[in-house]
Amino acid sequence: MRALELKSVRKSYDGVVAVDNLSLAIPQGCIYGLLGPNGAGKTTALRMMTGILMPDEGAVCIFGEPFERRHLKTIGYLPEERGLYRKAKVSELLLYLGELKGLSRAIIQRRIVELAERFDISAALTRRIEELSKGMEQKIQLITAMINDPQLLILDEPFTGLDPLNSALLVELLLELKRAGRTILFSSHRMDRVEKLCDEICLLGHGTNILQGAVPELKERFGGHQVRLVYRGEAPLLGHNGSIESHINGGNTVELRIGPEANAQELLRTVAASATIVSYETVEPSLEEIFIAAAGTDHGI
User: Fold this and answer.
1) Does domain 224-283 fall into CATH 3.30.70?
2) Angstrom distance (rounded) from CA 125 to CA 140
3) Measured distance CA(29)–CA(152) in Å, rounded
4) Fewer Cβ neighbours under 10 Å: the N or C end of the chain?
5) Cα–Cα distance for residue pair 19/47, rounded to 1 Å
């Protein structure tokens, strides 16, 4: 079943199109990354998924049904804006926000204890928000998004303000939620984080879908054009080979980006003319390289 689906949604502000004919299908039980530069339409798309904004055209479906307010009980949302009541005590604020989501006090208090221990902030529950660091505030916001134990967790830039240790803690928790059958959708401009976490991704540019799919499939589709050679002897002369788009020499290793029509055997013969080849392997492209290849500079990637 699809946990969330956008069907040709469109949204504009004062005549400026923010999201244009966007369609997404997010399977249940996966981690999905929504990517793109600032202004690509990520936040607008997330707001339509949570009912904060209504699309001008198209439809949003949650677990196979057209979006309705009742679906909010199954959703946890971390917004782009980090708005916490500065004078409130952490425990009181979490209790209040849990009640807004329709939870009983007993359930809220149990979830506060569980999540505070998980995020290592139990000692901060009696402190005021204004006394906390930005990283601590971010963890409070994440607890707020998760307090109703949602089936669908939607996070807008969740790693903002977290140091490497707390980022690793969040990664571990998200993977646990996935194993428990939860669906996680998050936006990010951090390609390395997305590459490690996500099963599927969508790249937005100017409000449109540039590229989407399972990460391994995208790597396979865009792979095969970069190779790594380890050699002994004289450095091979590759700069004037027309099939090579770029190359980087480092020690006895050379990395090459070759054109799609390149002849691998001819390349190996060129190298073997001046050196002994120790190893030859294709290099899996990173998501950043895939995005540059797919979108180019026209979309600000």
Assistant:
1) yes
2) 9
3) 9
4) N
5) 11
* Helix (H/G/I), strand (E/B), else coil: 284: coil
Q: Distance between CA 144 and CA 139 in Å, rounded?
A: 9
Other Cβ atoms closer than 10 A to 294: 16
Strand partners, 186: 33, 155
List Cβ neighbours of 36 (8 Å cut-off, separation of 6 or more). Answer: 42, 189, 203, 204, 205, 210, 299, 301
Q: Is the Cβ–Cβ distance between 202 and 32 less than 8 Å?
A: yes
**If pLDDT is split at 50, 70 and 90, which confidence band does 301 have?**
very low
Mean predicted confidence (pLDDT) in 13-42: 93
Indicate the pTM of the whole model.
0.83
Mean predicted confidence (pLDDT) in 283-290: 80
Q: Which CATH class is domain 2-220?
A: alpha beta
Domains 2-220 and 224-283 share a fold: no
| β-sheet bridge partners, residue 246 | 257
Paired tokens of 274: 């001046």
Q: So where are the chain's domains?
A: 2-220, 224-283
What is residue 19's DSSP assignment? Answer: E
| Average pLDDT rounded to a whole number, residues 239-254 | 58
Cβ neighbours, 10 Å, residue 84: 17
Structure-token pair, residue 163: 């140091």
